[in-house]
Design a protein that fits this description.
With 390 residues, the protein is of the alpha/beta class. It has helices at residues 2-30, 59-65, 70-87, 106-122, 159-175, 190-193, 210-218, 234-243, 283-295, 318-330, 371-387; strands spanning 94-99, 127-132, 180-183, 199-202, 223-226, 248-252, 258-262, 269-273, 302-305, 336-342. An eight-stranded parallel barrel has the order 1-2-3-4-5-8-9-10, surrounded by eight helices. Strands 6-7 form a two-stranded antiparallel sheet. Strand 8, helix 9 (283-295) and strand 9 (302-305) form a beta-alpha-beta unit.
Length: 390
């Protein structure tokens, strides 16, 4: 009996301790997670999840640090005019936006640019080549966000350094006479770099965004809108309609001050077919896109992205997509005004890993065509187009 009594007393103690622990747990759960009792006004109401803020140099200051040369300025102006003429049917050449999925190695980018400039000069009678110079990468979840955001590729986020590097590269490429195209992702970045961009794209993840439609309405370059990641065309058509209109929104001015921005509207929006759950570069899909543009009373101007959904994310298929698209032009299609290809010095891709262990000339984002395959595909396309004039 004494042993039973002892066991009962021990059990009551254990139950009492557990009850106290449960009570404490319930109290902690009931307490709102975002209210810190030691916070005082106004910190308790704003910036709860902001760790720090650092003042960035203004767009004007960056322009002063890295000024555009006279030749670079001429390259941008002339290239924009050429793209507009292509879109309006006054220039019969095919617009080709080609280059790395993203820029991470400046030496490799300059190496690629020198090769591309020579090829652009060789094929200029049939192709108007713009180098793809993407500094910002939208991520499905998380990952490296591009040269501007993280130039050292180590999550140190030296954005001011990234802006300097990006602007200097753009100046150098334009100074070579090679125009540049990019994806407009961050709505503030164009104030820093927009004067050096000949052609812009709004990506599939952001085409539906009001912020990006407003931004596009004020971009100084022609801008293409990609269909949605699921292949939906309506989001791109609506974006084109929106961006063609005047808008008023919050932005920044050259001095870096928050400013009420009033835009004219971008008259040179066009549709980029990038595929979705299935490719949409074939003649039937292109005809459907033409019909949708006509129904929306939009200019029937189409650029085909040979990568992404149209290549079924197989970089090697881009050459076949290009060949099919050029075949449609040869058969009389006048709506297709351009193509896009992801290309690098060497084919494929690699994981980021340690920045100092990366292979030279290989993409760290989407897999790309290698240089030899790129040059061969573009020469073949130019020859096919050239033969139509005989």
């Amino acid at each position: 009996m004494d042993e039973l009594a002892s066991l009962w007393r021990r059990a009551r103690v254990i139950f009492r301790v557990k009850a106290i622990e449960v009570t404490r747990l319930l109290k902690s759960v009931r307490q709102p997670a975002l209210i810190d009792p030691i916070m005082t006004f106004p910190n308790a109401l704003e910036n709860l999840n902001v760790l720090a803020q650092h003042t960035l140099l203004s767009p004007s200051a960056l322009h002063d640090d890295v000024p555009a040369s006279e030749r670079a300025t001429h390259t941008v102006s002339a290239a924009r005019a050429s793209v507009v003429n292509i879109l309006q049917g006054r220039d019969p050449r095919l617009l080709v936006v080609v280059g790395p999925c993203s820029i991470h190695d400046l030496a490799a980018a300059r190496d690629y640019a020198q090769r591309l400039k020579a090829l652009a000069d060789e094929l200029q009678d049939q192709l108007f080549i713009v180098m793809r110079v993407y500094f910002e990468k939208p991520r499905t979840t998380v990952g490296w966000k591009g040269l501007i955001n993280d130039p050292r590729m180590d999550d140190s986020f030296h954005i001011e350094e990234g802006l300097h590097l990006a602007r200097q590269l753009l100046v150098d490429l334009n100074d070579m006479g090679l125009p540049c195209g990019t994806e407009a992702l961050d709505p503030i970045t164009p104030q820093y770099l927009g004067d050096l961009i000949a052609w812009s794209a709004i990506g599939a993840r952001t085409t539906e965004s009001q912020t990006h439609r407003e931004m596009a309405s004020g971009l100084s370059s022609p801008v293409g809108f990609k269909n949605g990641t699921d292949g939906n065309l309506d989001v791109a058509l609506n974006a084109m309609l929106s961006a063609a209109q005047q808008h008023t929104f919050l932005g920044i001015n050259g001095d870096g001050q928050v400013a009420l921005t009033h835009t004219r509207g971008n008259a040179y929006g066009h549709l980029i077919l990038r595929g979705g759950s299935v490719p949409n570069y074939d003649s039937v899909a292109v005809a459907e896109a033409e019909g949708a543009l006509l129904a929306a009373k939009l200019p029937v101007n189409i650029v085909v992205d040979c990568s992404h959904g149209n290549s079924r994310k197989n970089h090697a298929l881009q050459s076949l997509v290009l060949k099919d698209v050029v075949g449609q032009i040869a058969d009389g299609n006048t709506a297709i005004k351009g193509v896009m290809l992801e290309s690098n010095l060497l084919e494929g891709s690699q994981k980021l890993g340690q920045p100092n262990g990366l292979r030279y000339g290989v993409s760290i984002t989407d897999a790309c065509l290698g240089w030899d395959a790129t040059a061969a595909a573009l020469r073949e396309a130019a020859q096919r187009l050239r033969s139509l004039q005989r």
